[in-house]
Amino acid sequence: MTLQQGLSFGLIGATVLCFLWGRWRYDLIALGALAVGVVTGLIPVKSAFDGFSNDIVVIIASALVLSAAVSRSGLVDRLMAPLLPRLVSERSQVPVLVTVTTLLSMMTKNVGALALMMPSALQIAKRTGVSPGRLLMPMSFGSLVGGLAVLVGTSPNIIVSEVRGRALGEPFRMFDFMPVGGSLAVLTIIYLAVAYRLLPKHRTAAIDVDAALAANAYVTEVEAPEGWRFASGRVADLRAAAEGAVSVVAILRGRKRMASPHANRRILPGDQLLLEGEQQALNELIVKAGLKLTDADRPVVMNEPTEEVRVVEAVIGAESDLIGHTARSLKLNEAHGVNLLGVSRSGYRMAGRLATVRLKAGDILVLQGAEQQLPLALSALGCLPLAEREVRLGGARHILLPTGILIVAMLLVAFGVLPAAVGFFGAAVLVIATGALRMREAYAALEGPVLVLVAAMIPVSDTVQSTGGADLIAGWLSGAFHGLPPLVTLTAMMAVAMAATPFLNNAATVLIVAPIGMGLAERLGLSPDPFLMAVAVGAGCDFLTPIGHQCNTLVLAPGGYRFGDYARLGAPLTVMILVVAPALIAFFWPFVR
Questions:
Q1: How far is CA 94 from CA 190, 380, 534, in A?
Q2: What is the spatial distance between Cα 480 and Cα 493, in angstroms, rounded to a whole number?
Q3: Same topology for domains 225-290 and 309-390, yes or no?
Q4: What is the pLDDT of residue 388?
Q5: Contacts of 335 (CB under 8 A, 6+ apart)
Q6: Reported pTM
Q7: How far is CA 187 from the centre of its chain?
Q8: Residues pairing with 365 in the sheet
């Protein structure tokens, strides 16, 4: 072992120990490792920041933006709407939700697919009295396995493809992962449809700040536009469309006000409606029914052409000038450039027009305005934004556009017309340029810590290869596995990746283990492809902890899970993957070159 190899192993080892310790953020640890690598000369100064321009980072970032655009479109909500009322028990809910989440993970990044389906799952659980914990973890596991089936489904696939491209001159293509990943997805869906019973039946979910704030019931004023038609046009149709989550408080028709209208009351074009419900339910109903917020189309003055219109939630302070006044008397739009879209007042149902409601301290308002003007208006009015939380109420959606752009990008990459980085970066730019996703939302979709981790760890992991350390480890492993069937070696490689993922993060695991797998294959005279596939599958399958992948972390609080719950459902699945996946890989990716 040379000095450079020893330094490389020491740097990697210290980085791994810091990850295991958990004292610091993993992105900070990765940046620290990068800095140490440059100072010690392991990483050339001119190559120190190559990771930030690497195709891996571009593809992951673009996939996150595209996932957010598809989620924002509401297409999945519309496709699922006829199905959701039929899911009356967990026996039907789990297979359907897991299958849909798994399939979505084959189109968008797995964490995006899970985030897209979680609101529907929580809504179903609340409506049917099923514990969210029986639904969310199976959906998380389904998203992990579904992401294995395509290039952009999960970070390990993207990184393994890039490692292959740098070593062999040609990366894996879009659907090269499908034979193995798709087969594992089918087996996993079958397993989860039965094994969800291993999870606790009754467990109270933790509620975070955003969820608590979202539970506020708002009253908002909407209008049925000219030519409006929705189902039979009755009050009952709106209630059914919102699954009882939104109430029609009153119908305002000219000078006439009909409070608590009967379910059979017909709504006419031009009628103004007072709706009450939680923000998400209101937003979904307004979009689904084609209603129009009465004040949302009032002009918002913007200082710069690049500004965006925002909608935020704010509470009226004790010294606010709004107290005792109405929105109409204060002329909010003319004086402050903001529109009042909704009001929430605990313990009181408002049945009058929003513009004529006398406001009180503690009322929660939904205000619309230009992004530069809103902070000034909130300060002048004595209002405080709630937890810096931006809300969306009745905004326009591009239903088909984001999905269409994503499908075109996938096909262009799959048929080799464009490289993956160019295809998905172009698609991400296009969804923003067409207005399917606002720039602010695109930035919010980017997982900064993950992108920094990957970008910083690329040069660090390259030191194992550049110093010959990967070949040295491969030589040790080839001696240990000499004479054993290749399938045993492949299974061991997958097991190493599986064991490391909960502690290193799946992206870091692939960056470190994939070059070693390639070196081992070279030493044994075998094709590197099955070993790279094994590393991708192993790094993408953490079913034992809530910390190895963002999907598992995402469902931890809403599902009310404890650390050990993951192993209850995940341990049998891990064993199944370890038994089945190597055989599938060997079948579709032969060891002989």
A1: 10, 49, 28
A2: 13
A3: yes
A4: 46
A5: none
A6: 0.69
A7: 24
A8: 314, 343
Per CATH, the architecture of 225-290 is what? 2-Layer Sandwich (3.30)
The β-bridge partners of 275 are: 220, 248
Q: What's the residue count for the chain?
A: 593
Q: What is the pLDDT of residue 574?
A: 94
Question: Nearest to residue 276, comparing CAs of 217, 223, 236?
Answer: 217
DSSP letter for 84, please: G
Instruction: Specify the CATH architecture of the domain 309-390.
Output: 2-Layer Sandwich (3.30)
The Cα 103–Cα 79 span in angstroms is: 13
DSSP 108-130: S-HHHHHHHHHHHHHHHHHHHT-
How much is the pLDDT for 571? 92
Dist. CA 556–CA 558, nearest whole Å: 6
Measure the CA–CA gap between 514 and 56, rounded to whole angstroms: 14
Residue ranges per structural domain of the chain? 3-204+445-588, 225-290, 309-390
Following DSSP, what letter does each residue of 267-318 receive, concatenated? P-TT-EEEEEEEHHHHHHHHHHHT-EETTTTS----SSTT--EEEEEEEE-T
Tokens of 337: 């450039």
The two tokens of residue 256 are 């006439």
Instruction: Give the CA angle between residues 557, 559, 564 to the nearest 5°.
Output: 85
Which among 12, 11, 64, 60 is positioned nearest to 500, based on CA atoms? 12
Give me the average pLDDT of each 10-residue run along the chain (593 residues).
Answer: 81 80 80 91 87 81 82 73 79 92 86 79 82 90 92 86 86 90 95 92 56 60 86 87 82 84 90 82 80 70 65 84 86 84 72 79 84 83 69 60 86 83 89 85 80 83 76 74 84 88 75 85 89 92 78 78 86 94 94 79
- Checking DSSP bridges between strand 272-278 and strand 217-223, what pairing results, if any? antiparallel
Q: In degrees to the nearest 10, what's the CA dihedral of 186, 188, 189, 195?
A: 150
Helix, strand, coil share (%) of the chain residues, nearest 5: 60, 10, 30
